[in-house]
């Protein structure tokens, strides 16, 4: 896993099966379901993987109201980068992860609560 800061981790995996396995590993390591997020390029795929893995999607609480509203008018790529950045990643990290999502991969993010 890649360390983003002392509390946040991200891992790019090949598919939903690997995402579910990674989430299980994070649960075993002590992360709560509400602190684990999965993200795929396709919204429906994100929904399915999050449900199967007992993880969250990045939503209003993480993004904030203004970002969530702005995402209604953004392209999917811009929306994904904003969602990733809302969890504390830099713009360049968010761009890197979004390109991986473009390739059909899945992003698993875990963070310890403040």
Automatic annotation (TrEMBL):
It holds the Pfam family YflT. Residues 10-104 form the General stress protein 17M-like domain. InterPro entries: GSP17M-like_dom. It comes from the Bacteria. This is General stress protein. It comes from Paenibacillus haidiansis. The lineage of its organism: Bacteria, Bacillati, Bacillota, Bacilli, Bacillales.
